Amino acid sequence: MQHRVPAWHRGRRLVRWPADALRRSVRRAPVTLCFVVLFWVLGLLTATIASGPEEPLLDWVSVSSESLPEYWPSLLLSALWANGLPGYISGTVLALVMGAAAEKILGSRRFLAAALCTQVSGALLATGFAAVSGFFFGDWGRELTAESFVGPVAFLCGAAAAASAGLETLWRRRLRLLLFTLLVLLALYSGSFQDVMALGAAVTGGFCGPLLFHRRPRLRWKIASTRREARVLVALAVLASAVGPVLAALNAHAVGPLSVLRYLFTYVETTNPQDLAELCADAGRRVECSAARFELHAGPAGFFLAILPQVLLLVFSDGLRRGRRFAWVAALILQAGLTVAAGFRIYRFLTGNPAGERYEFGEVEQPLALVLPMLVPVAVIVLLAATGRLFTVSAPSGTYRRLTVRVALSAVVLAACYVAGGYVVRTGFTPEATAQALLADLPQRFLPVLELRNHSPSLLPQTLPAAILYEGVGVLFWALTCVLLIRSFLLPAPEQHPEDVDRARALLTSQGGGTLSWMTLWAGNSYWFAPTGNSYIAYREGFGVALTVGDPVGPEAERREAILGFLAFCGDQGTTPCFYSVGAGTEGITSGQGFASLQVAEETVLELGSLAFKGKKFQDLRTALNRAEKSGVHAEWTTLGTAPLSVIDQIHVISEEWVADKHMPEMGFTLGGLEEMEDPGVRLLVAIDEDRTVHGVTSWLPVYQDGRIRGWTLDFMRRRSRGFPAAMDFLIASAALSLQEEGYRFLSLSGAPLARARDSAGREENPPAMDWLLDRLGTALEPVYGFRSLLAFKAKFAPRYIPLYMAYPDAAALPAIGNSLSRAYLPHVSVGQGLSMARRIVGTPR
Hints:
Pfam families: LPG_synthase_C. By secondary structure, the chain is of the alpha+beta class.
């Protein structure tokens, strides 16, 4: 029988909840809460809550170029006051969010030290920058010198930057990227003294953060580690280039060096009725009068159309994040168009408008102040052009043809609605709308407002229905277009040869294959099918080499005929066949055809059925299993398609964190990643605790024999850097015991490329050139990828070792095979990374 909690007891708990929450907060962030209390107490005692500090208090509590060195206490005191009630409220929210989180990571003492250090250094850097910026930016430097600042924003940003040093690699990079992108954006576009001071404090926090954790600061920072992360960074850069001018347009007091871009891209001038009357009284300024009347009636919809290019860039940035080729091409074209338009408008600003008046948009006597705004869109174009290889994902065939038809159809429907509806409410326009006037005005409903400033609007709405129709047509059209674009980015990318992949999958599941055969279904492979229709060979072609993936798939009795048929196929195509990661059976057949071979990997296999981790040699595994049980960590089977979103996100974080500390990209070919885990046939085993925190993840590929799954092959292995330390031992041991209970025959721990269990046994004094190269390559890549360490790690499971070979026709083909292998394993390696690897290979001692 369930015990019913009395109502009075529930009420008591409800009353005590705020007190308990307060006590927990005091324990976790005492410095932050003390600051908030002092912040409001000082504001109340000095009566500055409503309007901020005034003279003479203002001199002592505000930082400015003129306050130093006479009022030096303001370096610290400025953080304890704010400019009015909005400043006190926003400062409190920032302290409770950013400050409390930073204090939890740093600890109270280090948080206090970081806050004091970054507050003072941020103020000194801002005042110093204000003093010298006048030589380079003219008007901006004078504005900074004249400004003063009070508030806690600077030290909170500095403490957050310092606290990032205590996070895991991936989250540290993400936090710093987000924080510094925002602060740099505000400094360049808004350009207030507060923005510059916050940026200076954050820079100081970024340097002193590692010192607080007893580490040396590193000036070298790797921008991106994976294609996925590189795409996110490019998308963020494009997004920043779009958001910046909008922020400047929304801030009437923006004085940053890039604030001029609001005039070039998004600026919609607001005109009050009095100025409009004076302007329209001059008969010679009729065009300007009509444009001003139009801008006065533009409203929110007008502002949306004014920033339409930036809205489209925002949409395209989402496509860039997903690696879409269409988004890359569209963003490049749009950014190029904006750059050309910006250059033309700068020319107009400098030479004057058609009426003979010059536009005033800031000081241009400093060359840098004039050139810098143009460098931003040009830099975005260069960035997009240089990173085009990252965006290779295409939508299904016909996607954008259908999108064009839908966009055109919606334009026709909305145009008809505007003309028909405008004629119905024709008296709501001035002058009264006619069908001819509505048709003439129709193109202007779909164009950005900025393009209409030199054109006299033929119609202006006077009533609410007319205004809704007048402004809503364009907004609705572009909103629908944006939705269709975003939807196209969400469509799954088509497989390059879907029919071949489906046929190969059917053969593999019905005829069976080896432990590596599931890798033949991965993206990037081409297929040769035997004339009998029962066998196939997967390969990758590059540098004139057909590099196979594992043994032929199909009946064992047809293997010889399949290999001979593939050799004939390569001869007809003029390519060099190379059988890679094949077993002794395939190696024996190819050697009979005059092929040479060398061992390239060592596969480890566990026989299931009577496996029990008993005895001294399995002590580490039993320890891992026992420690996991005591720590509340258990193994859980799932797939990437059925796992909860929280688990999927953690898997992505763990994967990218693992790659983040490398100086080389993630490898492919026979090493799967997140994309290969999306296959529903691939099982995942995750180490997860009671709080649903994922500590490690492994993926397992099915091995088919005689139409049934007989075993599983280990592929993906990653663990959280600060999670359960024995996660891999625990996961593999748990997988072996679990799959044994399910009745499977064996478990392959896969092969370790460029690693052999007996590297020193039976080796020649002068090994063949390719053997020597692979040995040097394995040694060079060991600090990065750890293949030999991985093979040594698998030895604790007491597996059976199976050598894997590479068979090639003759030594003359080795250079091309080496290039093909490197491109297969590292398809996205950069020039710098390739040179670094070459130096390691040449300079690595034997």
